[in-house]
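ugh ok fine here u go
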Amino acid sequence: MQPSRILLAAVAFTSGAAFAGTADVKFIAPERFTDLATSPVQERDTMDALARHLQRLAAGLPADHVLHVDVLDVDLAGYAYPTRRGNVRVNNGLADAPAIHLRYTLEARGQVIRSGDERLVDLAYQHPGGSWRSTGPFYYEKRMLSSWFARTFGESHAAR
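structure:
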């Protein structure tokens, strides 16, 4: 099966400096992911949202940079709890931490600058000290990806 692929591009201008890094995001065998959505219908929405977030982060990179990301597994925060109206996501802060396994390569002008294989997990995803605005779809996963991006590629690029 071919990997699901989402290719996004963006151009951003900040403080007179041009940024236009791009991200090429592939979801490798998403049918085998640990927990991609509360229902199969929502899986595409999950992949689109995570890919868009990675693109927004990559847009802060210099114009000649391309970030290639293969998402190998996703385990969303919480768990799907069945109800009469369908599944709902429940976050109890115990053994339901968000986790994402990815492989990445950052290139500039065809040259590899950095690459790696990361297993991101945020065991303290609901502990105090986080934003009071911890809402919205995939908040915990996006926050975890933003933290990884800042650690890996520099805080100045992740601030976007």
